[in-house]
Amino acid sequence: MSEDQGKPKEGYFTLSGDVNSDMVHRVFEAVAGMNDDGIETAHILVQSNGGYVSDGLCLYNFLANAPVECIMYNGGAVASIAVILFLAGKQRYASETARFMIHKSHATASPGSRPDALNIIVEGLRADDARTESILRKTVELTPEQWGIHQYGDLHLNARDAKAAGMIDDVRDFAPPKGAYLRNI
């Protein structure tokens, strides 16, 4: 009898909160655990209004190349940099009532900031936007009108809009079967 027979090959996970260094650490630990447990496919329900661009990009790159296949679900809201994290999934789904929101990067300068400090902030925002837009353009197909909204404001997509844009494969709920391996990340 193989020692792998008792280990699950498929697992269900929830991931919520701000995209930040804490989430990066939690995801690193969770994927290491999945690998140790022999999980080959991780179904991950994401609920996040976003956070830090660099942390989201790190999670995107890590999950897109993880030793487990990630299938992502949006059961409520995936917004801002969390959309990039979500796009790491090999397959992606959203509940009928889910929404997505994407926008350009933003920051607040300290009152009294000098022009050279403001320039550094602007250049950082432009670099972040170039990195995230590269992933968006290779993954989703927004209409020219949608790209226009994204250029200057918040673009909101419901599940049907997300499917039309290729952001999700289908409208489907995260529904772990009874008795399934289920963990919160």
TrEMBL record:
InterPro entries: ClpP, ClpP/crotonase-like_dom_sf, ClpP/TepA
Gene3D superfamilies: 2-enoyl-CoA Hydratase, Chain A, domain 1 (3.90.226.10)
UniProt keywords, alphabetically: Membrane, Transmembrane, Transmembrane helix
Residues passing through the membrane, by range: 71-89
SUPFAM superfamilies: ClpP/crotonase
Source species, domain of life: Bacteria
Similarity comment: Belongs to the peptidase S14 family.
Name of the protein this chain belongs to: Peptidase S14
